[in-house]
Amino acid sequence: MLAEKHPPASSELDAFEQDVIHGLSQQQKTLPCRWLYDDRGSQLFERITQLPEYYPTRTETAILKNCVSDLAQHIGPQAALIEYGAGASVKTQILLKHLTHLSAYVPIDVSGDFLEDTAQRLQQTFSHLNIQPVIADFTSPFTLPALGNSRSKVGFFPGSTIGNLSDDEIHSFLTAAHQHLGDNRQFILGFDLHKSADILIPAYNDAAGVTACFNLNLLDRINRELNANFSTGGFKHDARWNENESRIEMHLVSIAKQRITIAGKTIEFEKGESIHTENSRKFCLDSIKTLCHNANWAMRKVWMDSDNLFAVALMEP
Ligand code: AVJ
């Protein structure tokens, strides 16, 4: 078992406990997917991105490599790049390397430890770049640091993280981004495309079982942090394609009728009953255009791989 660098802050623990008790008291038991990403969950996700079945990361990276010089033509000088969610990936470095004349890079993430490491590492490679990490949950309101010499701000939201959000959440997020990116705003969005279940299901239920570990780690995390007694052997990972909602759903299915104690409360599971742990939406171009349009963003340009698996779009007001 891996220790956290710092124990979770008590406010985080309270929020976690509330979400768990609330989510597991619903008719369809559900847990918000953000809790999948503790230290161990983040490490498992990194391993997912390298699996042969998991096409999104390598496909988006290839698209970015191919489009970045074209993209650079659309970005003015002295722009600040604002990245929502975990940065420091290969994808970020492609942009930092090819979007010359950037005035600043602002990675935003909830994990302070992670951000500090990232900022220090990137500063060594990009020694002249003004790197200003912000510790925040980007789905809640936050303030950007003063970026005095920047003439414009460019949002960057890769990885199809947008696919975790509901229509309402996307609307709030894109509207907030619209506001804090200010005048001359632009936004680079990576999103996964609708495709055959034959490709999708293995991508979320890989042969090596890494995605299963990633999903089941949530139960371990509840045991560790909330003093619960889940046995991970009592549940199995399930990835379901919901065509109506155009999304992959991750579930944890109880293999037997059982009773679990969490922070002093009892939760009952029927045999076959599931906890819905994540949605990963797959978009068609029109659906994403509409979502963006509703938040006053227009799609200026879009790049895709030759198999139309994934897309990167540049949006402007
Ligand atoms: C990080 C949300 C983009 O939905 O593909 C990968 C998370 N879950 N395998 C995704 C995930 C299971 C991933 N996102």
From TrEMBL:
Keywords: Methyltransferase, Transferase. It holds the Pfam family Methyltransf_33. It comes from the Bacteria. Residues 16-316 form the Histidine-specific methyltransferase SAM-dependent domain. GO terms for biological process: methylation. SUPFAM superfamilies: S-adenosyl-L-methionine-dependent methyltransferases (SSF53335). GO terms for molecular function: methyltransferase activity. This is Histidine-specific methyltransferase SAM-dependent domain-containing protein.
